[in-house]
Amino acid sequence: MITRIPTVRLSVALVVVALWGAPAVRAQNNGMSLELHTNENVSASSLGLPHFPTSHSYKGESKDSAADVGFTFGSFHFRVMTSKYETNASADQVIDFYRKPLARFGEVLECEHGKPVGERKSTKEGLTCSDTQGPHAHAKADYDSPRQLRSGTPERYRVVAIEASEAGETHFTLVYLEVPKDDDSH
Fold it and tell me: CA 97 to CA 121: how far, in whole Å?
């Protein structure tokens, strides 16, 4: 998973990456707080989604199957939670399974190669298949996945990303993203 964000947000992301190994860091001064946390114990349920019945954790080339990284500085908040799985079910079965649970978070948008599938181009909440919304980029989330389901708002959303699907094996990632709101005053 690669996360790309505008320059100021990129600096924050680099701090998150630099301190990836730190379990938690907090600082507070003059009403501003700074918090960084990391956690490798992420499951489907901690993302608010059910576990796909025939799936199990998948580490892949990155050697990581799950991550929870968050950064808060005052009102600026960024968080990404991921959990990778593999199953002997087809990609279509995985997509169909997660449609209903994702609907709890808003309309569900299906995307292929960054483009919407069907008539719906965005949800009522403003979420699109594009990783940029409005005049500024909210976040660039490139899961290297040809198929995705998305639900939520442009600032808080969940993704089911099919990473690879070959005969007898499907790899998918469940993702939860909280990204800062666009604010023209900053």
Answer: 22
State the CB neighbour count (10 A cutoff) for residue 29.
7
Output the pLDDT for position 95.
96
pLDDT bin (cut points 50, 70, 90) of residue 156 is very high
Task: Enter the pTM of the model.
Answer: 0.73
Q: Position 184: which residue type?
A: D
Q: How far apart are CA 24 and CA 177, in angstroms?
A: 19
Distances (CA, A) of 34 to 4, 17, 71, 73, 129: 21, 15, 7, 5, 31
Q: At residue 13, what are phi and psi to the nearest 5 degrees?
A: -60, -35
Tens-digit pLDDT profile for residues 110-124: 999 888 998 888 899
Range of the domain at 114: 2-178
The answer to whether residue 121 is domain-embedded is: yes
Q: How many domains, in total, are found in the chain? A: 1
**Which DSSP category does 47 fall into?**
G
